[in-house]
Design a protein that fits this description.
Layout: H1 15-26, E1 33-40, E2 49-50, H2 54-62, H3 68-76, H4 82-89, E3 96-100, E4 105-106, E5 113-118, H5 119-124, H6 126-150, E6 154-157, H7 166-178, E7 183-184, H8 187-193, H9 203-207, H10 212-222, E8 228-230, H11 236-253, E9 260-263, H12 268-281, E10 288-292, H13 297-305, E11 312-315, H14 317-320, E12 330-339, E13 342-345, E14 362-368, E15 374-381, E16 392-395, E17 403-406, E18 410-413, E19 415-420, E20 423-424, H15 431-443, E21 460-462, H16 464-486
Parallel strand pairs: 6-7, 6-11, 8-9, 9-10, 10-11, 15-21
Antiparallel strand pairs: 1-5, 1-12, 2-4, 3-5, 3-19, 12-13, 14-15, 14-18, 16-17, 19-20
Length: 487
């Protein structure tokens, strides 16, 4: 659980949320209820994502309220009347939120968060929910790809100094741990979330002493039980590794076990192979080789293919910024209105088919085989039930002429209740439990779905009920649009 005092992020919203709220208020629509889905669309390089940010969403909703200072600022904009500002003064979240548990493997178009609340509340929270879930899910996903490439080696998150601000560094490091990293260099994240922190020394340490050997000896004297030496300040193979071996010999003579060396530059495949040979020849077979320096999943994969002898990977900039995919692109769309207790499904049409939304009050189901391996996901209407005793035909998400019949399967609902009637009903787990759950999640997907290049497409289908509803609304909206044009 976080040790940081919960912050009031109510004003972390876009102005148009407030102007829409004011419009609802002025038109007497403030008692209307809306159902919104938060999801991400298909994105290059992201075949699956790792859900993160649920805990932040809960903290945000629990602290949702406007202060007098907030109201004074909004009054100064000369956009809103006093009746509206008075309503904001009393505003608290009273609705329902369902969400994916952190660590859940999720796919495009699946609702990650589902909000059912009075329209003004549901509209207000859009921006913050997107901010919290978009970023943390993106970094957890990037970490998952890096960890996959490392093939069981330790991966450490080292990106704080390159993160786009303190929050990105803190919550990004936590998300990286959910994505599978073993530790972080970020001390505040370690303190807040009780995750492992690790680190060695920088080049400046070596440069602060008369020579490299003196620097290594001084470090070993201070940290004899956790001695990891950075060997590339001057010359990796001619001075760095030999000097490290000298210090490791001295440590062993005193009864200590050296941890290893760190490579931070140069040809890491060649240098690691040569360093491994030198360490082994000197009797330090247990000393690990740690690598850092602009690494990502692609570089790690290629170094592995080249036979690099690296045991631990420190990944910084390209992980904490998700350099190749800088935004998840999650969106928050109205899927239904609630009028007198009746759910009225809504759909957004678009010339671009990827921007067409799925209507209705929905849930996400994951189907598993008898061995617990994921077969497919179904986006279904809330009231639909899947009969697991009967065969189920599912369709390819894009090429509908392709289908598959499932005969033996179990079903799990992925959205869990976070808030009911404005009250938190979900107990946020400790980071260790989230990490264990995330490991179980990733293990339930065949490797073909997770490979970095041209992965097999995991099937996310619409239920028959949702498909029929979507087609019906498309036809109705096109007919209405045609009538409007004629009139």
């Amino acid at each position: 659980m976080s040790m940081m005092k919960p912050r009031n992020l109510t004003m972390m919203t876009d102005l148009y949320q407030l102007t829409m709220m004011y419009g609802y208020y002025k038109h007497g629509m403030d008692k209307n209820e809306g159902i919104f889905d938060l999801f991400f669309r298909e994105k290059k390089y992201i075949e699956y994502a790792v859900m993160a940010g649920t805990e932040s969403v809960i903290e945000y909703i629990n602290n949702l309220h406007f202060t007098e200072e907030d109201l004074a600022y909004l009054r100064s904009l000369n956009l809103f009347d006093e009746g509206f500002l008075s309503m904001l003064r009393d505003l608290r979240f009273t609705g329902e939120i369902y969400g994916m548990k952190e660590g859940t493997i999720v796919f495009p178009n699946e609702p990650l968060i589902r909000v059912k609340a009075p329209i003004m509340q549901a509209q207000l929270v859009e921006t913050a929910l997107l901010n919290l879930v978009n970023h943390q899910t993106l970094i957890a996903t990037k970490a998952s790809r890096v960890v996959y490439a490392a093939q069981g080696d330790d991966v450490l998150e080292f990106g704080l100094r390159r993160a786009q601000g303190p929050d990105a560094g803190i919550y990004g490091a936590r998300a990286a741990m959910i994505g599978g990293c073993d530790a972080t260099s970020n001390v505040l994240t370690g303190q807040m979330y009780n995750v492992d922190v690790r680190g060695t020394h920088a080049h400046s340490w070596v440069m602060s002493f008369p020579n490299e050997l003196a620097a290594f000896r001084a470090y070993a004297e201070v940290f004899p039980t956790s001695c990891m030496l950075l060997v590339d300040t001057y010359d990796t193979l001619r001075s760095g590794v030999p000097n490290a071996i000298t210090v490791f010999d001295e440590l062993k003579a005193k009864g200590y076990k050296p941890v290893g060396i760190r490579l931070d530059s140069g040809d890491l495949a060649y240098l690691s192979k040569r360093a491994r040979h030198m360490l082994d020849a000197a009797g330090h077979q247990d000393a690990k080789i740690f690598a850092s320096g602009d690494l990502d999943e692609t570089v790690i994969r290629d170094l592995k293919l080249q036979g690099a002898r690296i045991d631990v990977w420190g990944v910084g900039t390209k992980l904490i910024t998700s350099l190749d995919v800088p935004a998840l692109g999650g969106v928050y769309k109205l899927s239904a209105e609630v009028v007198n207790g009746e759910i009225i499904p809504k759909i957004k049409l678009s010339e671009n088919i990827i921007k067409m939304t799925n209507p209705g009050y929905k849930k996400v189901l994951r189907l598993y085989n008898k061995n617990g391996m994921a077969l497919a996901d179904l986006i279904a209407l809330e009231g639909e039930e899947i009969d697991t005793t009967k065969p189920l035909r599912i369709y390819h998400p894009e090429q509908s002429y392709k289908s598959k019949v499932l005969r033996e399967f179990t079903v799990r609902e992925l959205l869990v209740p976070l808030f009911i009637d404005g009250k938190q009903v979900y107990e946020t787990p400790d980071i260790e439990d989230i990490q264990e759950y995330a490991r179980e999640e990733i293990a339930s997907f065949w490797e073909e779905y997770r490979r970095l290049l041209n992965p097999h497409i995991y099937k996310v289908d619409m239920s028959d009920g949702l498909y029929d509803l979507k087609q019906k609304l498309i036809r109705e909206n096109k007919r209405k649009n045609d009538e409007d044009i004629k009139s």
